[in-house]
Amino acid sequence: MTDGKAAFLARIRRANGRRSAPDPAAVAAEAAALVADPARTQPTLQRQDPVAEFEARVTSERLAATVERIGGDADAPSAIRRYLEAEDAPLELALPPDPMLQALDWTGFDIRQSIDANEGAALSRAEWGIAETGSLILLSRPEQPTLYAFLPLRHIIIAPRAQIVRHMEDFWAAFRATGRPHPRNINFVTGVSGTADIESKLVRGAHGPKRLHILLTD
Q1: Which of 9, 18, 178, 192 has the most CB atoms around its CB within 10 Å?
Q2: How many Cβ atoms from other residues are within 10 Å of residue 122's Cβ?
Q3: pLDDT along the chain (218 residues), means of 10
Q4: What domains lie within the chain, and their CATH numbers?
Q5: Are 204 and 210 in contact (CB under 8 A)?
């Protein structure tokens, strides 16, 4: 530790009424206690069902997403058709190189095999969702390029209902239990992007898609 950093931390300790650095063993014990019992710091969800909690949060005014429950991947093309037609949008879709998605019946769609800036609509697959925050987890991999989550005007995400967990800690525990290596990127998609920096007026799509539509599968 540099002399300047040590002096800075010493001033903080004095401001908090401390004269010496905390005992490292005590700090480690406190951290271990939090990890051992995360429920002590987790918020209580309003609903017992994590899927219902997730839907309520992600469709709230703040997150502004839309949700439809479907049976499985095979139902995705018809559900996406309904969504785009309701939006009065063309049946154009950037499809990631996911073999399972590529194999679906996209008759009537203009399917793009790559994605460009300001793409009309793009499809992604989330492996988990978090009820506490209304977040979807996108793991980068060759079949799911990261740009599909950031370039389109409308981002459509398929997510399994069985993988909607209650809290952030539950996701990390489930991911580590898979034994898979950490991907290059893990993106937490929490509603539609927006900013209220200018005159406190909310503008959607400031840092990404203007629309988020979620297809929850059985």
Answers
A1: 192
A2: 26
A3: 80 81 82 73 88 96 95 97 97 96 97 92 97 96 94 96 96 95 95 74 74 97
A4: 3-36 (no CATH), 43-217 (3.40.50.10420)
A5: yes
